[in-house]
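We now fix the convention by which a protein and its fold are recorded. Think of the row as the fold of the chain written in a discrete alphabet. Here is one such record, which you should read through line by line.
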Amino acid sequence: MGNKIKVAILGATGHIGKGLTYKFFENRNKYNTYLFVRNFKKLNIFLKKENINHVSLRRFEELNKEKYEVIINCIGAGYPTKLKKLEGDILTLTEKFDNMILDYLVKNKETIYINFSSGAIYGKEFDVPAKNNSNLVIEVNDLGTQDSYLISKLNSEIKHRLMNDYRIIDIRVFSYFSRFIDVNSSFLIAKILKSILDGSTFNTNHLNIFRDYVTPDDLFLLIEKCIENKSINDFFDVFTKNEIGKFELLKGLEKVFNLKFKINYDKKIDNPTGIKLKYYSQNTKAERIGYNPKFDSLSGVVHEIKKYIKESIKF
């Protein structure tokens, strides 16, 4: 017990938080996991469903009561509907919990802080994927809700880089999928999954967009590499072995799960945050710390859908 790494996860009931909770539980021989949430009832339902034990539950105000070797911040607006509801409050929410952890670091300088940032930090335009020399353009005379999310992430990352004597890593997530997704959310991949589950036809427009769907196994792998490389203050874009186009994804899922889909050339193309044609990163800096993803986008999505279906049958 004494040799295990003590890990605190803030925001364990979110999409990413659930996946990490599951992965740390799978690796409980190496880690003692402490889950910080507002809603214990919601968390306990998830833990019971997944048969997860050997984790400790904490309230946010209890963070300073113990020493943790790693703190992982998963707090944020994981779903577009939640982001829209929060509007400008996302700035306050992000800064509140980030500052809480930074205050903790001042008193516990050896702690590693892993923060989840977003590909949104690169801006709204993704006609080409993000690269190591990408520039950010903000229309300062036309700021809106989407800018508040971007600015909240940018603000955190700037603070983290300036605290270069501390062990802080920002992981930028572009597209993430796991068996723990809310199938009623507005994400493309959630709608596709729902069609697979109920046997309905998935209707989509003719626009081929490209995404890089990272799943819990690879995200956990990157986190472990960050923990092993203890003395870094840096950021990493997370990626898989290969991104995928929408139509290639649909054809792949048709083959494996008998997904029915239809391309509607008259379907309106509507995205309130802008059309991101190639929302993924070609910045593979994480390879420098030994990150080598296990899955490509299609194989990762297939793996997680199979797990979802298996879990649904079980319960």
